[in-house]
Amino acid sequence: MWRCDDCHSGYLDPRPTSQSIGRAYSAYYTHSPTSAAALLPPAGIMSKLKRAAMNDFLNRKFGYNLRPALPLGLGYLVFSSIKKKARNAAAMFRHLSAPEYGDHLLDIGCGNGTFLLLARDRLGHDVEGTEFDDAAAANAFQHGLKVHRAPLPGMGLPPNYYANVTMSHVLEHLHDPISALSEIFDILKPGGRVWIQVPNLDGASHQYFGSDCRLLEPPRHLVMFTLQSLTDSLKAAGFIKIEPLASENFANLMFNAGWMISQRIDPHVVPQPTIPAAILSAGNEAQIAYSGVSNQSEFLTIIAFKPK
Fold first, then answer.
1. In sequence order, what are the beta bridge partners of 147?
2. How many CB atoms lie within 10 A of CB 37?
3. What's the CA gap between 245 and 306, in Å, rounded?
4. Looking at CB atoms within 10 Å, which of 178, 214, 216, 229 has the fewest?
5. Residue 277: CB partners within 8 Å, gap ≥ 6?
6. How many alpha carbons fall within 13 Å on the CB side of residue 79?
7. How far, CA to CA in Å, does 187 sit from each of 104, 154, 167?
């Protein structure tokens, strides 16, 4: 991984070609069956209360009309008083406002379709996805989801059509992310919004572990952004009202994984080995220090709009 002296993004060189990159995904987490756990009716009184509280928060924060919901704004009060709860709930649903009539949502790199199911069946959005991985797309198809087998750039989707486009941990996998952002701009309708989450090259775990950082994930991550370089890339594509958002930090998990990689241990191994106390402490400190919107959070979450 090299770092550009101009924009400070990271880039893999040498890197897999467009023809060979598929081999890096021969075994990948999106090949697992679609998880519908968040869609299941809650069992037990406490689970039902939590669902009703979250529904009230989403109703008041993002304009939904989800039922059942706690009355008198109690759910909103609970979530808003606990910053972590509010942050994680909003990020789980990608900060999506309630859809208006005729709105369409596109999730690029939808994997097995878990988020599309959530947006469709919990929130009522009209959803579509794109996915280049055959095994992942097959899981999404099983749930009746409309998934385009298309690359980015080059999706061939209609211009000025989508009210929302979301991309969770996709942009860093693309050979030409700048052209991808321009194409997303084109397919959004005027006033439409893109939501992006990517790993952060300036994240605390990268500063701590360097080339052993879990965020780098070679050879799959081809380009790594900073908050500034992602903001500049969105501006160059024509987006306005670019805003970083708070989401869960995951620093403790990334520090654990970074230590395992440094010891040449598979970070996905189960059960996990005993992590040294110094690593646990450093991870927890970063978790607290860089929660919310931060240049050193592990992930960057950002929204931007196409002018009306």
1. 129
2. 7
3. 18
4. 178
5. none
6. 26
7. 11, 11, 14
Rounded distance, CA 254 to CA 85, Å?
20
Out of 69-78, 133-142, 295-304, least confident range: 133-142
End-to-end Cα spacing for the chain = 38
Give CA–CA dist 299/30, Å, rounded: 19
What pLDDT is attached to residue 36? 59
Q: What is the pLDDT of residues 228-249, one digit of tens each?
A: 999 999 999 999 999 999 888 8
**Is residue 275 assigned to a domain?**
yes
**Two tokens, residue 47:** 């689970």
Q: What is the extent of the structural domain holding 230?
A: 94-100+156-305
Which tokens sit at 306? 């196409």
Q: Which residues pair with 89 in a beta bridge?
A: none
| Dihedral class, residue 210 (left if φ above 0, else alpha if ψ from -120 to 50, else beta) | left
Provide the token pair at 172: 């860093």
Contact at 8 Å (CB) between 99 and 66?
Answer: no
Say if residue 153 is preceded by a cis peptide, omega within 30 of 0.
yes
- Judging by DSSP bridges, how do beta strands 223-224 and 240-245 pair with one another? unpaired
Q: Based on the fold, state whether residues 77 and 162 are members of the same structural domain.
A: no
C-alpha 182/C-alpha 245 separation (Å) is 21
Q: Residue 204 sits in a domain of what CATH number?
A: 3.40.50.150
Task: Tell me, yes or no, whether 243 lies in a domain.
Answer: yes
* Full strand arrangement of the beta sheet holding 10-11: 2-3, 10-11, 223-224
- pLDDT of 24 > 90? The answer is no
Report the distance separating Cα 267 and Cα 253, nearest Å: 10
pTM reported for the whole predicted model: 0.93
